Structure formats: structure tokens, C-alpha cells
Amino acid sequence: MALTGRYCMKCGGRLSHESRPSLCARCRQLNGVGSDHAPNFGPDFWHTDQMRDVFATRDMGEILRAYRYHPTHGHRPLSQETLSRWLGTVTQSQLSRIESGRNKVDTLEKLIHYAQALKMPEDLLWFKFPESFADRNLKPASGVIPLPGGPLVPAASLHLGSELANSLLGTLDRYSATDNLAGPQSLVNIVPEQLRFIDELVATARGKDRVRLLWAGSRYAEFAGWIYQDTGSLHSAMQISSAALDYARESEDASLSSYVLMRRSNIATDAGRPELALKLADEALAESGKLSPRQRAVALRQRAHAHALLGNADACTRALEEAHECAGSEIVDDNDIAQYCTPEYIEMEAAHCWIELGQAQKAIDALQRGLSTWPSEFRRDLGLGLARLAVAYAAGEQVEHSIDVAGHALQIARETGSFRTEKQLARIPSILVAHGATDEARQFDLWVKSLRK
Questions:
Q1: Residues 84, 94: Cα–Cα separation, whole Å
Q2: Residues 6 or more apart from 132 whose CB is under 8 A from it?
Q3: How confident is the model at residue 1, as a pLDDT?
């Protein structure tokens, strides 16, 4: 009778049918899976013909690859993520380049570090450890690199993570400018890739570098959520903004956490979930004492949106009044993430609330004032403002004005691919039908549908 069970590749113990790894839990633990340090596999691991042959190549990349594919690890090779964690000085992508030969490990200090990190036997190595090297800390403890017979050189790489984070944040500013002009389509594949790069950096960063990278990761994830939101991928937007919140909380930045909660609330309003939107907006305002006035304003604006969708006119008005007052405060910190939230911005956002509450003329007045001085670099949001004005005109039975303004919004929507603008324009046909303008509604409905082709 044939055996149909599955057994551990190392100890031969029975595996459960649900177990995907080819090693049992005990052997996986002995193999160091989940640990930050490589286990000591012992002589039987290293002194095989295969390992002797690969050491003879004197190529650390070949050795690392043979190490990962050693039979001791079972059917599946040791992952690059695990090995890079054990090495402690490289990311998974860097390890991939080392194994492929694109990056060479050719300095004595790196060779010794890899040999020590993986506990390689000295008799297999083609280089020698200098006297007392094993007792030395290879990482400069005081921020300097001592050169033999020379001066103490500042360790420029000591805060590389912070420098990379600052560079990435500068790039994010340029992405934001592109988004404001051209919409999300050109960025929808780029920003998530940058976020994956930050994930790799965070995995090995420590101290202040890690905190700064966490902050950058939160900003990129929040922006990726915005990109997904404006392409209509609301589920993806909510998922990745959850990652942004995790980053912000790990960095222990209360104001950044509040901002991400506000953004999640905004996504919830677009998804037609006003109760969730209100809950998230209230969470964003929970620690108001740690927020700048403008951060309070943008969260209050979101609370007003949620109340408008729920039909709570009085609560909406109170939130807007408080937001307008906060937005008028001076900017104290040039790095304030919500410094764009001016009184004019709040007034434009209030128009969205007036539309939801059936107060078309108040919306028209606010939008006309705001659009007359709209900055040219915010073209995508100009389209959204025009779309809201067209909705307000339609609700106010000003059909000709609605069609005229909507035509301009349609053109910008075609150029930017903004889901939010399209969503506003899609409301107009049903409003026109309700006011008896069926021919205009039919024609406009065809225009809106042409955006999706």
C-alpha cells in the first residue's frame, strides 16, 4: 500500500495536509525561519561536495545562492527576504543583484561580514580574518570610520535612510504637481512601486532613519490611496490607506495619523458610506490638541461632508463654520501637511455640502467666487469644481448654464481621467430629467458615457 502522507524533509516527521512548507514547525525553527539571525547549521551543512565546489569559485553571490538552495531548507529554497534579514546589511533587491552577479561582494570587510553573519567555516574561505577582527564591531559606533594610519572620517552612510526618505519626499512633491495638472493615470503604476522600495528600506532601517522612512512610507501610501481613489478603485484606495495608517502609527506621529484617518473618511464618502466617513472623521479629530489649525480644518471639512450625506444640515453647518475659522490661522510650520486648507478651499468644499443638502443657490454662489480665482496648477480640481457647479446649476433649474459649464468639465475630465469629476457629471442627467429637460439629459448622458471609452 502506497504512503500518501507528507513528511518533513529534514526529520521525517508527519506534516498536516494543510501545511504548505516542506519542513515541520520544529525544523523550521531550527532553520531560523522568522529569526533575525542565521542559525548554526553545523559541519554537515557546509562540508558537502556542492558547497566545497561553490566556495572554490570565490564568488560570494554564488555562495549565497547555494546557501539558499541547500537541501536542508526542504523543497522550497530559503527566501531572499529571510537571507537578507539574516545578513542585516542588504535589502532583498540588493541580494538579488548580488546573486545574479550584477553586484559584486569584493571588499574584505563585506566578505568577512557575510561569513560571520552566516557562520561560514573558516577552512572553506579564500580570505583570512585579521587578528581580533571577530571581536570588532564592523559598524561605526560613534559616527566615524577609522582609517589605518589616517584621520577619522565621518560615516556618511550612517543616516542614509533619512537622506533617502528626504529624497523620496521631494519626488513625492513632484508627483503631486503632476497629479494636479494631469490627473492620476500617469502615476497609478509608479507610486506603488516607490512604496515597495520604501518597504524594503524600512525592513532594515533602525533608529531615526527608520522613523523618517516610516513617515515617508505613510505619505506615499496615503498618496497612493489618493491616486486609486481618483481612478475609481475605492477598495484599493481604502486598503493602501490602511497601510498608510500603520506606518503613521508606528512612527508615533499623531498629526500624520489624524491626516490619514481624514483621507480614509474622504474615500468612504466617495464609496457612499457616510456613517463610516463620520466615524473616521471623528477619530481624526480625537486628539485635536496635537493638530495644527489647518489639520483640524481639513478634518472638520470631512466631518461636514459626512453630515451632509446623512442630511444633518445643522451639524454640517457647525462643522463648516469651525473649519473656516481654523483655516484662517497662520501657518506656523512650513511642513504642515494641510497648509493647502485655506478659507477659500473650505468655501469651495462647503459648496459640495450645499449641493447634498439641496441648497443649490448657496452652492452656486460659493463655487462662482472660488472658481474665479482658481490657481492654474490645480487643473484636475478645476474640472471637479466645474462639475460641481454644473450639478448646482442643474439642481437650480438653470439648464443652459449647467450644460455650458459641464462641457468645460467634460474636457478636463477627458484629459485627467478623474473618477471624482466623472462621478459628479454622471449626476446631471437624472437631475435634468427631474426638471423636464429630457432631451438635454439624453444628450449629456451620451457625453458622460464617452468618457469611459
A1: 9
A2: none
A3: 39
**β-sheet bridge partners, residue 153:** 145
Residue-wise pLDDT for 67-85, tens only, equals 999 988 877 888 888 898 8
Q: Look up residue 224 and give its three cell numbers.
A: 497612493
3 three-class SS:
coil
Please give the grid coordinates belonging to residue 303: 466631518
Cα 229 to the center of its chain, rounded Å: 13
Mean pLDDT (the chain) is 84
Grid coordinates standing for 362?
448657496
d(CA 355, CA 273): 17
- Grid coordinates standing for 438? 429630457
Ordered by where they begin, the domains of the chain are: 1-30 (no CATH), 31-128 (1.10.260), 187-252 (no CATH), 257-357 (1.25.40), 371-453 (no CATH)
Comparing C-alpha atoms, which of 118, 81, 77, 108 is closest to residue 96? 81
**Ranges assigned E (strand) in 225-380:** none
Q: Are 94 and 57 in contact (CB under 8 A)?
A: no
Under DSSP, is residue 15 helix (H, G, I), strand (E, B) or coil?
A: strand
